[in-house]
Amino acid sequence: MYRLSCIHCGAEYAPGEIIYTCKKCGHLLTVNYDLDAISVTKKEWEQRPLSVWRYRELLPVTIKPVTLQEGGTPLYHLERLGKELGLPHLYAKHEGMNPSGSFKDRGMTVGVSMAIQLGMKSVACASTGNTSASLAVYAAKAGIPAVVLLPAGKVALGKVAQALMHGAKVIAIRDNFDVALALVRELCIKHGIYLLNSINPYRLEGQKTIGFESVDQLGEVPDRLVLPVGNAGNISAVYKGLKELETLGFIDRLPKMTGIQAAGSQPLVRAIQGNLGEVVPDEHPETVATAIRIGAPVNAEKALIAIRATGGTAASVTDEEILAMQRALAQKEGIGVEPASAASVAGIKKLVEEGAIDRDEKIVCVVTGHLLKDPETVIKQCPPPIEIDATEQALLSVLHL
Ligand code: AN7
């Protein structure tokens, strides 16, 4: 039992209505459950496999879901990096281990299931890459067509490869993500295509399970949850979910929600640090972390609440800091992530060095996408393979043995 409601004016809408923002005031919508009517126990959840669907009582899907077994991603203790940073309780939740290699799959298993539940015949999104890959995957599984709009020339190779191979109609827009999103929103509303960007409140329901799993895997509520921020959907979703757990009495406190952006694309950070009422968009966002090259985060209003209500913070990291952390995670922890994902851990490094966080905190950094998503940025950072003749002598000479 749930309704859609506006986070600004409180207007309510029936769950079957195809609607992305409030008809009265234009602000964001959220899914409101009748939590008093939810009778599932924590124990029942714990008996199910760790996955998005473990938490189905807190998801809007009532049909058989379109699923590829998403979620249940590993939570790694970063022992070596944590030691270097003086953080004994530093963890990474590796969302790159989802079916399409990013956290978006949690949103899309729910979002595409909702498309089917609502009787929609096709789906679409604008994307910096991962959303398009994930939508293509789940549309393929559901057997419905998908259209994806990408900023031309600014999407990592692996993501384009996935969107193409899984059969989406892939369209490159000669402008940035924010413009592509405005275009696809219009298209969907006018032509009855189901929009699956994070403005869609049902998609975010799936993503909130990152927070649920983090609590279940850690065995307690982390003191801080750190996420890279683009459209700010994920940080908003995780906060919303944990609030629900708190209301249900499953947890007794919330983590400090912490958002990290790239220095060249940091409207949310400016709003938090400047204590602004709303986010002022970046007209020309730029960063090597193309996944979060987003100047006008559509979920900013939700994210500001998440960060402020939990005593969290937002910080930015430079491209150099992002890439250095991508290499450190790969080489010191064996964790391969794409640049945007490394931003969360790079942000914690910066915050701890600034003395902004307590070293005893239990910190979960969400690393959002897999290393192989963006092979070109990897290759640029690493020396090429050493090519030699196939002789023992040549081999020994390059190994300096
Ligand atoms: C790896 O694919 O927006 O703050 O269109 O791919 O919830 O937007 C991707 C975002 C972080 C930011 N890490 O999440 C898209 C898209 C990775 C991402 C984010 C994205 P939000």
Low-confidence stretches: none
* Major sheet characteristics: 6 strands, mixed
- Count the strands? 13
For the biggest β-sheet, the strand order reads 4-5-13-10-11-12
**Which architecture name of the domain at 75-101 and 203-381 does CATH use?**
3-Layer(aba) Sandwich
Helix and strand element order? EEEHEHEHEHEHEHEHHEHEHHEHHEHH
- Can you list the ligands bound to this structure? ligand AN7
Q: Count of helical segments?
A: 15
The fraction of residues assigned to DSSP E strands is 5-15%
Structural class, from helix and strand content?
A: alpha/beta
Mean pLDDT: 97
Q: Alpha-carbon distance between the termini?
A: 68 Å
CA-based shape: globular
Computed over alpha carbons, the radius of gyration is 21 Å
> What is the helical fraction, as a range of percent?
25-40%
CATH structural fold name of the domain at 75-101 and 203-381: Rossmann fold
Please write the CATH class name of the domain at 75-101 and 203-381: Alpha Beta
How does this structure look, described?
The chain is an alpha/beta fold. Among the domains are: 1-37; 75-101 and 203-381, Rossmann fold. It is 39% helix and 15% strand. The chain has 15 helices and 13 strands. The strands form three sheets. Strands 4-5-13-10-11-12 form a six-stranded mixed β-sheet, with helices on both faces. A four-stranded parallel β-sheet has the order 8-7-6-9. The chain has a three-stranded antiparallel β-sheet with strand order 2-1-3. Strand 10 (224-228), helix 9 and strand 11 (256-262) form a beta-alpha-beta unit. Helix 3 (104-117) packs across helix 7 (201-207) and helix 4 packs parallel to helix 5 (157-165). The N and C termini lie far apart (68 Å). The model has no long low-confidence stretch (mean pLDDT 97).
